[in-house]
């Protein structure tokens, strides 16, 4: 009897160990910590552009990193806290340097007919870093006599769908510490684990059900056909919808809008990784549709562009 009980106990321990190992080996989302637009605006790190008479502000991340030592220290501190908990990180400062070396910040994609797609600095950061989740960080220092504290907000944003998937915020206890990064660490310490639970829960859902992306279908004015043109007795819009249904994960997507000139697919679920373990983004997924339409019997010349990681546009009729 004792021997049987010992065997049962040993098996139980082995099962528990396997379960624990499985959790420890679970793949975690890749993160990138960035200062929020609010922080950049409050601290004067914005660029202003004239967009057809409307002034548009966008964050000047490069100048913020070059001029604000607190920013470097704060992001380094949050990066360290996340790394200690096993979350892979992309360093924002390094990503910005990569963008600079490739002169990607001012890049504009144009068609031969002059149509173009421009991207925000954040879209470019997302494409270069290829992080799963962007942690937007806002903080300010409060003073109470000789003591200081930090008030902060952290928002976990899905880099593909731009949906908020986790949030944390609060104010740390007043302290005599003069270092903003230390004050922030103290304020974040008791909230970061619940925040990370939210991040992991979202990532687990992505593993089970796929990422969400958006695909837009448009046409150039120069193209004589439209999305209601029939190919083999089937309208082109139906052909495209059938392809999205067949290739999206579990056939999950929403055809939000459709006319003879455009189609909009939202909440298109795609796998996180391809067969080689590489992350799949909207452009990579839509490339399959691009090639499908360019091949016989459709032979439609088309142009594929992307906005960030989560949106792809296929324009029919030209390159």
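^ structure tokens above, recovered residues below v
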């Amino acid at each position: 009897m004792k021997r049987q009980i010992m065997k049962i106990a040993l098996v139980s321990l082995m099962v528990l160990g396997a379960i624990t190992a499985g959790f420890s080996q679970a793949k975690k989302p890749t993160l990138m910590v960035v200062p929020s637009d609010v922080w950049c605006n409050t601290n004067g790190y914005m660029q202003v552009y004239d967009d057809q008479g409307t002034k548009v502000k966008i964050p000047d991340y490069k100048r913020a990193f070059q001029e604000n030592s607190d920013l470097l220290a704060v992001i380094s501190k949050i990066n360290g806290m996340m790394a200690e908990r096993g979350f892979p990180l992309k360093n924002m400062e390094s990503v910005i340097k990569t963008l600079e070396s490739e002169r990607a910040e001012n890049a504009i994609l144009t068609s031969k007919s002059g149509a173009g797609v421009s991207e925000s600095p954040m879209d470019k950061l997302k494409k270069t870093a290829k992080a799963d989740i962007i942690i937007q960080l806002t903080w300010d220092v409060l003073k109470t006599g000789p003591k200081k504290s930090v008030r902060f907000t952290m928002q976990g944003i899905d880099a593909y769908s731009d949906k908020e998937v986790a949030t944390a915020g609060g104010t740390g206890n007043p302290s005599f510490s003069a270092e903003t990064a230390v004050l922030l660490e103290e304020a974040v310490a008791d909230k970061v684990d619940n925040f990370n639970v939210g991040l992991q829960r979202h990532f687990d859902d992505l593993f089970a059900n796929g990422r969400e992306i958006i695909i837009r279908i448009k046409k150039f004015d120069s193209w004589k056909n439209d999305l209601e043109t029939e190919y083999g007795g089937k309208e082109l819009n139906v052909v495209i919808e059938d392809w999205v249904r067949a290739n999206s994960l579990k056939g999950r997507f929403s055809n939000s809008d459709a006319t003879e000139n455009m189609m909009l697919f939202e909440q298109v679920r795609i796998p996180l990784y391809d067969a080689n373990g590489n992350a799949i983004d909207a452009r990579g997924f839509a490339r399959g549709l691009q090639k499908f339409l360019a091949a016989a019997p459709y032979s439609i010349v088309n142009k594929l562009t992307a906005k960030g990681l989560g949106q792809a546009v296929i324009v029919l009729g030209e390159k």
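The domain at 31-206 is CATH 3.40.50 (Rossmann fold).
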